[in-house]
What we know:
alpha+beta
Amino acid sequence: MAQLAQLDHMDMWKLVELQDHANIVRSKFILHYKHDAAGNIASRKARLVMQGFIQAEGINYNETFSPTEKLSAICIIAAIAVHNNWELEQMDIDGAYLNALLKETIYM
């Protein structure tokens, strides 16, 4: 798969010896096909997903944090910007979580 070669090129993982106390987190690939109007495959997407639900808090990790915005907060910011005649800009950060430093070692 081209996606695996791309992830390997980005140094997303490394092969290591398994420790005796290691909790192995399973993973799976989610494959998705986008079709055009004629029904032909327009693009393919693959996502490697860790099944972190088998981890236990305090043993495998200490805390989790996933910042997400609420629709009401976006509406308030937009209303303030309109009232003050400000210009709004929006940006997408792809893979920001992929490059975050972890304190824990995760075996997958």
